[in-house]
Amino acid sequence: MALIQLQPFYRGDDHALQVLVKVKDSEEALDITGWEFTSTMKLSSELPDQPALDDQGNRQVLQVVKVADANDDSRAGRIDLLYPAAETRQLLPTSYEMDIQCQRNGITQTLVKATITVLADVSHGDSHD
Questions:
Q1: What's this model's pTM, rounded to 2 decimal places?
Q2: Distances (CA, A) of 83 to 12, 20, 52, 60
Q3: ∠ CA(27), CA(32), CA(37), 5° rounding?
Q4: Rg for the chain (alpha carbons), in Å?
Q5: Which residue, 7, 61, 84, 85, is the most exposed by fewest CB within 10 angstroms?
Q6: Which domains, from first to last, does the chain contain?
Q7: 16 within 8 A of 24, measured Cβ to Cβ
């Protein structure tokens, strides 16, 4: 597992994370067709994984799940995980803990753990509309 700092993104924007899975020793891309990927962002790692809003309508947990389809990207070990703008609009402008996990053949593995910062977007202000 790697611990990294991701580039900040603006609340209310679509945000895509591209995952590239390689063999550790050889750096050869793995065919990830059929693998399930889950990316979870949380204000605190102690929160449950289920997406939740606080009393003010701010999102405390945001989760994206995607299965790698049979295509050239998957065969080359690549998958894009998209956090949609409609959901990032509900995030607070602060730092979130996040990870990306994959599941294949009933085995779950954390690929990366990171900190990601959500920036306030001027055009969305504090209204979250």
A1: 0.84
A2: 10, 17, 15, 14
A3: 110
A4: 15
A5: 7
A6: 2-119 (2.60.40.10)
A7: no
